[in-house]
């Protein structure tokens, strides 16, 4: 073991290779790696990495002898990367490379042992041409359309008169002036919440997206306008960025796209709730014209006055026609007619009742006469009598009694008791009709 110096983490003299830690995780303060070993391990690890194609925008270009140094910035995020490239690689490019160009670079990480510095070396550079940009935009447009982000049913209607308008545009830009000036001319009381951002270059996408999120969170902002003047295809590329397009699609506040001129159609136009051909057109479509609205109010008031006057005239004529009718001219006539009808109906009712009573009385007298005619009492009144045995049975034949038997005799008026002294049977051929049986008498006859 090498001699250790008190108070220092190292050792005095070289450490045998057999006693060194095999991995970085096994190193300790008592058993550290030499710096050269760490550098060699880092270089060996980086050398095993494969080359990779990356896309970015050139923001800095310096030529120094045989090598040049580029600074690439991500097209969407605030990230940059220094890249070393040999001039021979740059000379293979058809057109000279310039700052602001969009390129695709094949890079390989390289680690310099002596200085311990990591660098990126470019093996090939290919500028992104206009045709390739258009092909990428069209592919992205089809992809987002297939997801339904451009569906008409997702478009929200703008408010008739927004309380406050959020405006995202460049600082002191013509687009900002056009929107605010034309909107104020149409509606002087309009209010704006302005966010000035970069509208081209690598900073445009994150700044526009942040401003959109900030305005979307304000409850007093009823509509958001993203405005920019005209420019080349490369200048308008941020407004076709996928992350920005998805942010607009997810906003809860209606968004108006006013990018470039009529011929410019970034993807933001497809997903926005309303597409304005120019910033001036956006101002005309987000607020109404106060002069037109006043004229509309005057026309509506005149129309209402005319309609009300016609309604009053028509209803007055109808009321006069109703008042001229007899039922309103002499309202008591309706009661008089109904009183006469009631009297007539009452008289008919009395007549019908009296006729029914007279007819019923006649029927009762007729039935009474029939009952009297059929009553056994009338038969007794003609001189006949009813002979009954002691038990009350009416006798119909002399064979039903015997000599010396007591019988009761009933006359038309009163009756008496008698005793049979002799019996005279009647010949059959001279037999008279049986008198009416006593049980056919009615209670009234008795």
């Amino acid at each position: 073991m090498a001699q250790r110096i008190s108070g220092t983490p190292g050792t005095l003299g070289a450490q045998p290779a057999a006693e060194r830690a095999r991995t970085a995780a096994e190193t300790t303060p008592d058993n550290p790696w030499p710096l050269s070993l760490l550098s060699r391990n880092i270089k060996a690890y980086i050398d095993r990495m494969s080359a990779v194609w990356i896309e970015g925008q050139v923001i800095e270009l310096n030529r120094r002898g045989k090598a040049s140094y580029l600074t690439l910035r991500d097209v969407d995020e605030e990230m940059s990367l220094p890249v070393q490239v040999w001039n021979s690689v740059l000379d293979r490019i058809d057109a000279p490379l310039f700052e602001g160009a969009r390129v695709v670079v094949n890079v390989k990480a390289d680690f310099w042992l002596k200085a311990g510095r990591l660098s990126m070396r470019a093996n090939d550079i290919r500028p992104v041409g206009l045709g390739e940009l258009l092909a990428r935009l069209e592919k992205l447009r089809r992809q987002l359309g297939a997801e339904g982000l451009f569906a008409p049913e997702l478009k929200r209607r703008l408010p008739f008169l927004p309380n406050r308008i959020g405006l995202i545009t460049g600082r002191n830009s013509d687009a900002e002036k056009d929107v605010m000036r034309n909107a104020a001319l149409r509606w002087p009381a309009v209010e704006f919440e302005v966010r000035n951002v970069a509208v081209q270059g690598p900073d445009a996408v994150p700044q526009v997206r942040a401003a959109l999120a900030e305005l979307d969170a304000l409850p007093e902002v009823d509509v958001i306008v993203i405005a920019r003047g005209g420019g080349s295809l490369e200048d308008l590329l941020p407004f076709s960025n996928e992350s920005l397009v998805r942010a607009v699609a997810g906003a809860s506040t209606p968004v108006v796209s006013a990018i470039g001129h009529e011929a410019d159609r970034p993807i933001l136009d497809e997903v926005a709730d309303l597409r304005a051909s120019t910033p001036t057109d956006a101002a005309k479509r987000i607020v109404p014209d106060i002069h037109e609205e006043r004229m509309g109010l005057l026309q509506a008031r005149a129309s209402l006055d005319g309609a009300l006057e016609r309604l009053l005239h028509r209803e007055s004529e109808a009321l006069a026609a109703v008042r001229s009718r007899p039922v309103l001219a002499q309202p008591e006539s309706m009661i008089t007619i109904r009183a006469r009808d009631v009297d007539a109906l009452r008289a008919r009712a009395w007549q019908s009742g009296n006729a029914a009573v007279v007819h019923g009385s006649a029927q009762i007298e007729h039935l009474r006469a029939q009952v009297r005619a059929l009553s056994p009492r009338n038969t007794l009144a003609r001189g006949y009598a009813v002979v009954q045995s002691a038990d009350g049975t009416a006798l119909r034949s002399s064979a039903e009694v015997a000599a010396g038997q007591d019988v009761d005799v009933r006359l038309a008026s009163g009756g008496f008791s008698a005793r049979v002294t002799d019996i005279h049977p009647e010949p059959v051929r001279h037999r008279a009709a049986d008198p009416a049986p006593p049980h056919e008498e009615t209670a009234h006859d008795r």
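Residues 332-374 form the longest helix (43 residues). The longest strand covers residues 52-64.
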